[in-house]
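for the writeup, i need someone to sanity check this before i put it in the appendix. the sequnce is what the collaborator sent (i think, or maybe the updated version? ugh). structure was predicted straight from it, no edits. if anything looks off just tell me and ill rerun, i have time this weekend
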Amino acid sequence: MKKTISFLASVNLALLAFSASASAKVLASFEKGESAKAWASVNDDVMGGVSSGGFKLTDEGTLLFSGSISLKNNGGFASIRARSKGMDLSEVSAIEVEVKGDGRTYWVELRDNKQMMASSYRAYMETKAGEWQKVTVPLEDFKLQAFGMAVRGSKIDLKNVTSFGFTLADKKEGPFKMELKSIKAVTKNSDAKESPTAKAGKAAKSGNTIVDLAKGAGTFKTLLAAAVAADLAEALSGEGPFTVFAPTDEAFAKLPKGTVEGLLKPENKEALADILKYHVISGRVNLSQALEAQEAPTLQGQKLAVKFEKGRVRIGSAELLSADLEASNGLVHVIGDVLLPPKAAAQSCSPCSVGGAMSLIERAVETGAPIFNKGDAASCAAIYEITTMALRSHPEVSEENRALLGEVLNKAQQSESEEEQAWILRKGMGQVYRALQQK
């Protein structure tokens, strides 16, 4: 396989030309073809892997990045990159990519003049299969990584950006295809929606506590309501320090219908407090420290696994969305799912809060199936796992079926495939559902 691991000394002028609008700077446009000369491909074959990846200009005036990912020989990535002598992005706030993808999630990468090529500042870019879209990636979302691992370090020098590109490293084998029409550095409109990371960062800079930071972000309303209901908001506003794995409102919305409402009832206060403490660590623990320790001892008493797998950092069963948000009394790491310890999972979905066992299964499938069909198998599996644990303590479920569900949970946990986990759990719930119908 031909390896292309060197770059041209400069980028075509079209690569860095300002657009007609003062709020956008064109980084790459492929209509005339010249800018493709500035690009090179770097795949895992430089480390012994066998993934393939490359690019070509199309007749439609786009750049096609395609190939196939293989996990053999500890490989699993393909990338394309363009390099220049330096470009000033200090006056812009986001990277806008006009892209037609395949439904997979890619990294957008930036490097400054102090970067080694093995490390970069990366942000996720989700694509829709077969659909052209304009994806805007805020600059504050770019985090320093090296060899796929998060690194706590200084912010990128936006005045001296020397490289940008794209990497696919989602630990999923098979062919991929992503087509690029244009890449721009843009200044978001003043009325544009501000990201949770940016809002939280502003709150932290003003010296606010974890609770104030969450209020300022505007995407943790359910978490805040739960903290108030459990009498924990005052503690999280105290001296600390604490480290909080904070689920977003969207994370709470993934739970089966009625779960949150049930937990907020006064009679479930103890169970709610137990769940929230499962999201809190004593002390100020940044992401690098958590990854090094590989686990996080929570205030609830149980430990959470912290690991990097399949191109993502996972806190327990939840995906990490952003990390190391500074508050005056600790740190906040944003996660995409609610973490439920086994005991609390059962309590949160008990009959008094969400209804009968058959209804519980119906709600789980109603919530999880559309999420799975949209490609988010991990979130679907998390919903099914929570439901399965709840069913094991449900009075309508027989001892025989409780034992069955225990076997199902063990089998799912042993699988490394999120899609397979979801199907194992759903089939197990289906067996219990049919047994309940026969009563």
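The longest helix spans residues 418-437. The CA atoms of residues 203 and 216 lie 6 Å apart.
thx in advance!!
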